[in-house]
Amino acid sequence: MPATILVINGPNLNNLGKRDVSMYGTTTLAEIQDNISAKAAELGVEVKFFQSNHEGSIVDFIQESSSGAGGVIINAGALTQVGYSILDALLDAGLPFIEVHLSNIHARERFRQRSVFASKAIGQMAGFGPAGYIYALDHISSVAKS
Q1: Is 24 a catalytic residue?
Q2: Which residue, 37, 62, 84, 133, has fewest beta-carbon neighbours within 10 Å?
């Protein structure tokens, strides 16, 4: 059975394509997910998508879905700096995870430069736009627990 990779998106990412296009571009979350699905098929892995504007819902998803998963790709959005409960759920799941950001958070406002996930993630993709998800999938599929 192929590994399943959880792809989690946090607050406001449901508005991609119309949200500050100068920063995030015109690609929608649905288009990003289509591209991820195509790459997953090429790599022989399965993906399970989840997006929520609510931290607790993300925690619930991780807790409910991690037992059948091999890894996680997460763009926590604005919860990047404060999502300790999400971090705890990821650590409890014991799965490798990669943090993704469409923009380069390290070149933005100071408050956006800090991530509660960075020190525990196996990697971070920041500033590569939607391609960051594909790069993350390519890597996590090679280290995912099957």
Answers
A1: yes
A2: 84
